[in-house]
Automatic annotation (TrEMBL):
Organism: Streptomyces resistomycificus
Protein name from the UniProt record: ATP-binding protein
Length: 62
Protein backbone atom coordinates (compact mmCIF):
# COMPACT_ATOMS: atom_id res chain seq x y z
CA UNK A 1 0.00 0.00 0.00
CA UNK A 2 1.31 3.45 -0.91
CA UNK A 3 1.49 6.36 1.45
CA UNK A 4 0.06 9.74 0.41
CA UNK A 5 3.58 10.96 -0.44
CA UNK A 6 4.09 8.05 -2.85
CA UNK A 7 0.92 8.52 -4.91
CA UNK A 8 1.28 8.19 -8.67
CA UNK A 9 -0.36 10.55 -11.13
CA UNK A 10 -0.94 9.00 -14.55
CA UNK A 11 -0.70 11.62 -17.29
CA UNK A 12 -2.65 11.46 -20.55
CA UNK A 13 -0.88 11.03 -23.88
CA UNK A 14 -0.50 14.30 -25.78
CA UNK A 15 -1.10 17.86 -24.63
CA UNK A 16 -3.23 18.51 -21.55
CA UNK A 17 -4.08 21.25 -19.09
CA UNK A 18 -4.14 20.56 -15.38
CA UNK A 19 -5.68 23.30 -13.23
CA UNK A 20 -5.01 22.93 -9.52
CA UNK A 21 -7.52 24.48 -7.18
CA UNK A 22 -7.56 24.11 -3.42
CA UNK A 23 -7.24 25.67 -0.03
CA UNK A 24 -4.00 27.24 1.12
CA UNK A 25 -1.66 24.53 2.35
CA UNK A 26 -3.46 21.72 0.52
CA UNK A 27 -0.41 20.69 -1.54
CA UNK A 28 -0.92 22.42 -4.90
CA UNK A 29 2.65 23.72 -5.03
CA UNK A 30 4.05 20.36 -4.01
CA UNK A 31 2.24 18.66 -6.89
CA UNK A 32 3.30 21.41 -9.31
CA UNK A 33 6.97 20.93 -8.40
CA UNK A 34 6.72 17.34 -9.66
CA UNK A 35 6.41 18.73 -13.20
CA UNK A 36 9.38 20.23 -15.10
CA UNK A 37 9.60 24.04 -14.72
CA UNK A 38 9.10 24.65 -18.44
CA UNK A 39 5.75 22.81 -18.29
CA UNK A 40 4.28 25.13 -15.67
CA UNK A 41 2.35 28.37 -16.10
CA UNK A 42 2.52 30.31 -12.86
CA UNK A 43 0.20 33.27 -12.34
CA UNK A 44 2.74 35.04 -10.12
CA UNK A 45 5.25 35.18 -12.99
CA UNK A 46 2.70 36.75 -15.33
CA UNK A 47 1.58 39.15 -12.58
CA UNK A 48 5.22 40.26 -12.14
CA UNK A 49 5.67 40.79 -15.89
CA UNK A 50 2.49 42.87 -16.12
CA UNK A 51 2.84 44.98 -12.97
CA UNK A 52 6.33 44.57 -11.51
CA UNK A 53 4.79 43.17 -8.31
CA UNK A 54 3.88 39.72 -7.06
CA UNK A 55 1.26 41.11 -4.67
CA UNK A 56 -1.03 43.01 -7.08
CA UNK A 57 -4.49 41.47 -7.21
CA UNK A 58 -6.98 42.46 -9.87
CA UNK A 59 -10.73 42.52 -9.53
CA UNK A 60 -13.29 42.98 -12.28
CA UNK A 61 -15.75 44.38 -9.75
CA UNK A 62 -15.66 48.03 -8.72
Amino acid sequence: MRSRSESVLTLPDGPFLLAMIGDAGSGKSRVARAFPADWRLELDNYRWQATGSFSVKFSGLS
